[in-house]
Design brief:
The complex is a heterodimer.
Chain A lengths: L14 E3 L1 H20 L2 H16 L6 H10 L9 E3 L1 H22 L3 H21 L3 H13 L2
Antiparallel strand pairs in A: 1-2
Helix pairs in contact in A: 1-2, 1-3, 1-5, 2-4, 4-5
Chain B lengths: L4 H20 L3 E3 L10 H4 L7 E7 L5 H13 L5 E7 L4 H6 L7 E5 L5 E6 L4 H9 L3
Parallel strand pairs in B: 2-3
Antiparallel strand pairs in B: 1-5, 2-4, 4-5
The chains are: A mainly alpha, B alpha+beta.
Pfam families (chain B): Thioredoxin
Keywords (chain B): Membrane, Transmembrane, Transmembrane helix
InterPro entries (chain B): Thioredoxin-like_sf, Thioredoxin_domain, Thioredoxin_H-type-like
């Protein structure tokens, strides 16, 4: 059996306000719902840029996080709940992949591809916003098990 | 093509999944037959508890893992016959495959022999952990 590594998942955590990503997921839900109904490539392109910022710079650097800090956070009282930045950053990366697939579907005139990709991204954002669904918890380990020897 | 149909389908499926997800997280699922592999200190990194050992698997992209770890660490302080082990799933893939861990956090409840009696996926409530631990003799 391999040597037990008990701490690597908790040692280098960068903490952010846990309510920020959930607020961002709510905005993402609205944008993706509008994109799905109108089949709008422009809205997906916009959301793709937001996902890319979240995936590469971090979930606290997106325009939605800016809206949260500017308008929502000052109104909230009580202790700030914090969370590791990596789970929402992982979710933004998954969102980015769906947005790229959706945009490809639009550019290649495959509306079904667009609809399915936006549908999955919308479901994930909605579940995150309403049920506090943790995408990284459910799919990351499965992906590692499949791709890592 | 403007249609509300895809939106409605996605939202209905997501709500159904979300309700199931919320209800099933943290729930202790008892194994029908306790016949799994025996885990020991060499595998989980801590000595087995004299009655129960809780073994939590975590990963980097998992917010509820932190809350689960804090809860279980706190609970074992008052339970001398129960011990807690925390394992990073990604760096212990051999073990993860062997006992089929699919999502994080997953907490195994081992009996005094180190055999899994049941498991909980997601962050359990304090009462759910107490019930699970109390059911193991």
């Amino acid at each position: 059996m391999a040597v037990i590594n008990q701490t690597s998942s908790t040692t280098k955590a960068k903490l952010i306000d846990a309510r920020g990503p959930r607020f961002s997921a709510a905005i993402t839900t609205l944008v993706l719902a509008a994109a799905l109904v109108t089949q709008s490539a422009a809205l997906i392109a916009l959301q793709l840029v937001v996902f890319a910022i979240g995936a590469f710079a971090g979930p606290a650097k997106t325009p939605y996080a800016f809206l949260y800090k500017k308008f929502v956070k000052p109104k909230l009282k009580g202790e700030v709940p914090t969370e590791d930045a990596r789970p929402p950053q992982f979710a933004q990366s998954v969102g980015l992949v769906f947005a790229i697939v959706a945009l490809a579907g639009s550019l290649l005139s495959i509306p079904a591809l667009f609809t399915v990709a936006v549908g999955f991204a919308l479901a994930a954002a909605f579940l995150n916003a309403v049920f506090n669904f943790c995408l990284g918890c459910e799919i990351y380990l499965i992906a590692v098990r499949i791709f890592k020897k | 093509m403007n249609s509300l149909t895809p939106l409605v389908v996605v939202l209905v499926l997501a709500i159904a999944f979300g309700v199931w997800y919320t209800r099933s997280r943290g729930e202790f699922r008892k194994k029908k037959t306790v016949n799994g592999p025996k885990l020991d200190a060499a595998v989980i990194g801590v000595e087995l508890g004299s009655r129960v050992t809780m073994v939590q698997f975590s990963s980097a992209f998992c917010s509820p893992c932190r809350a689960t770890k804090a809860l279980l660490e706190d609970m074992v302080k008052t339970m001398p016959d129960v011990r807690y082990a925390h394992i990073d799933a990604e760096s212990n893939l051999e073990l993860v495959r062997k006992i089929d861990i699919r999502s994080t956090p997953t907490t195994l409840f081992l009996n005094s022999d180190g055999v899994e009696v049941g498991r909980a996926m997601g962050t359990p409530k304090r009462s759910q952990v107490l019930d699970a631990v109390n059911a193991i003799r």
